[in-house]
Amino acid sequence: MMTCKEVSILVSRGEVANASMVTRIGAWMHLAMCRHCRTFRRQMALIGRAARLVGAAFEHEPSASFEDRILHHLGS
Amino acid sequence: MQAARLRWVVASGSNISLANLRARDPAALRAVVNQHARRLYRAARGMGFSSGDAEDLAQEVFATFLETIDRFEGRSEVGTWLFGILHHKAQERRRAHWREDLTDAVDEVFEGRFKADGSWREPPIQADRLVAAGQTAEALRECLAGLPDQHREVFQLRQLEELSAADVSEMIGCTINHVGVLFHRARVRLRACLEAQGWGRSR
Questions:
Q1: N or C: which end of chain A has fewer CB within 10 A?
Q2: B94 and B149 in contact (C-beta within 8 Å)?
């Protein structure tokens, strides 16, 4: 049985999907039973959603001619 | 080079010939710039560069991309190749070298949340008390600024650009395991910073 610490490390490293089948099943079983670890996973997901909002704001910073300036610089 | 390898899928749904790019075909260049310039800019901003520096970096990445395109064999995604160039440009600007820190003070913060048997000593705050993503984003902006450069870059590449740990490890020249360690440390730091700002407390 995986411990809360092992599961949360796996979650925060972003390694659940790429872990071995045995580890993935262990993590899923643990998450199904442990509300604290499910909460931790939701916190990680919320950080991800919030970070995407921060990123989206950055993306709109350059003016509409941003791509044209790059192409001009490239001599295209 | 075989003709088959010259056909290069830039992204699903848009095929651009590598040969056209090597020939500086304007339409092919525009397609690549349109597709990736703002992502590169966003990543540079996420890594902590100013808006002016981020614009310069994006421009430099494409210039280097064209200079080195003969070495690009189309085995990896063009986006991964471009982010690899961005990483090197960012390193040049910071005059910093990537190093693998075996220990980090934040590891103790994480360890402190668990008992010796690996169960939670301080359980995470219930999700229904967590504030919305928009409010978290405001707090997160400040927390991101406080991250060490390496943590910030790995967080940006893994979390926002959704690059695989294998791609990021190749890009920055460290092991896949270390990418996981840095991503974990970044998120532990962000979580601790958000909690220090009252994240999840009842309002």
A1: N
A2: yes
